[in-house]
Amino acid sequence: MSVNLQDAAMTTTFLLNLPPELKLNFSSDLPVKDILGLRSVCADLRDVIDNSENPTMLLQPGIQRELSRLQDAVKATLRYDPKTDFMTALQPMLLIVASPSRT
Q1: Residue 53, Cβ neighbours under 10 Å: how many?
Q2: Which of 8, 33, 42, 61 would staple 28 via disulfide (CB 3.0–4.6 Å)?
Q3: DSSP conformation letters of 14-67
């Protein structure tokens, strides 16, 4: 399969012409490793990603996905009242893990 350079250039130009908000929107769905890789594509993407207001917008969706995945794994393993907030239910378990053993 050959790559049509004209099509690739048009796609890149289209991407770079998007407003920063849309660049952030599609970037936020990527894993952190890929977001960091986008920084090396061009200066425009690097500047959008490195803007001091954007890291939270970029990382928050990934953090939420991972937290949800973790919650699902814990729920599948541990039993607790589903009406209880996950972090509240997890707190006693964290204290057990963090306490020094008495052997």
Answers
A1: 8
A2: 61
A3: HHHHS-HHHHHHHHTTS-HHHHHHHTTT-HHHHHHHHSTTSHHHHHHHHHHHHH
> What six digits make up the tokens of 72?
């699902």
Q: Decide if 24 contacts 58 (C-beta within 8 A).
A: yes
What are 64-88's pLDDT values in tens digits? 888 888 888 877 777 777 777 777 8
pTM above 0.70, yes or no: no
The Cα 71–Cα 23 span in angstroms is 29
DSSP 8-state secondary structure symbol assigned to residue 17:
H
As a whole number of angstroms, the distance between CA 15 and CA 45 comes to 10
CA separation for the pair 11, 7 (Å, rounded): 6
Is residue 14 exposed (0-12), middle (13-18) or buried (19+ Cβ within 10 Å)?
Answer: exposed
